[in-house]
Amino acid sequence: xxxxxxxxxxxxxxxxxxxxxxxxxxxxxxxxxxxxxxxxxxxxxxxxxxxxxxxxxxxxxxxxxxxxxxxxxxxxxxxxxxxxxxxxxxxxxxxxxxxxxxxxxxxxxxxxxxxxxxxxxxxxxxxxxxxxxxxxxxxxxxxxxxxxxxxxxxxxxxxxxxxxxxxxxxxxxxxxxxxxxxxxxxxxxxxxxxxxxxxxxxxxxxxxxxxxxxxxxxxxxxxxxxxxxxxxxxxxxxxxxxxxxxxxxxxxxxxxxxxxxxxxxxxxxxxxxxxxxxxxxxxxxxxxxxxxxxxxxxxxxxxxxxxxxxxxxxxxxxxxxxxxx
Length: 325
Ligand SMILES: Cc1cc2nc3c(=O)[nH]c(=O)nc-3n(C[C@H](O)[C@H](O)[C@H](O)COP(=O)(O)O)c2cc1C
Hints:
- The protein contains 10 helices and 14 strands.
- With 325 residues, the protein is of the alpha/beta class.
- It has a single domain, classed as Aldolase class I (TIM Barrel, Alpha-Beta Barrel), CATH 3.20.20.70.
- Helix 3 packs parallel to helix 10.
- It is globular.
- The relative contact order is 0.20.
- Bound molecules: flavin mononucleotide (FMN).
């Protein structure tokens, strides 16, 4: 008899168990548990339901094109980076899983070796550069991403004050707030689509448009940035409305299932990022775990799309969603 594959909750449970066995009780950032914005996002996502249309079932297509690349699923790997509990092959293992699902992966802070090992798997790779105080370093990282064949590049503007480690802020001197004039120049000088990650206000979204960015990621950076920044899913619709189709809107923070992805898309995101879930899936079963999670989440999305009468991603509209307080 064929062995049944793990379900999404089983993937997470196995990942947590394996991490616990390895003596690790956090995923990201180092030494931190779930922050208030992540918990609030979870609660909000769980309050959203969809209106079914069960008659006359539709065939469902989950494919899309982002940054000129055709993807089979709108579930992507949000920016990740090597953590102390990972080895120097771990990111490539996750990228291998991503490559076989026809999705894309974003990598954050880290060197060229990690970037190259992900690119070598054949997965479409996006590089998210830190908001370094040293502008030369920002240009160096962007050029490195261009030369190695990334499909896009970006910056997590919300990390301007440093990195959270436990309750402390570290590396505050290494990063700095970015001025729009400087970013505009950087964006005009790269041939790659540029993404601004960490947008949570209409004001920043409109500035991203003015800067010439190709995309924004509405994101709380998980529990890795400000504890009480407004949850990404709560601000997503108004941010999406404010920018219209002037740029691509992506979202992350707290998404765990295909149904969560459906809700993110209904609130006008083009695609939805998983970071912590993919780390757990990798901890559960390496590259296969990452592949299984994306495939299971996409299968759940497909089923809900069929149940809601949505033949493709662009037909998942806000009007399908009903909030049950
Ligand atoms: C292991 C790990 C490493 C991360 N490293 C980065 C990084 O270097 N740059 C960045 O912009 N975001 C980084 N993030 C944040 C994610 O991109 C994402 O914004 C956040 O985790 C929320 O998504 P999640 O709830 O699915 O984890 C990291 C997340 C994880 C789990």
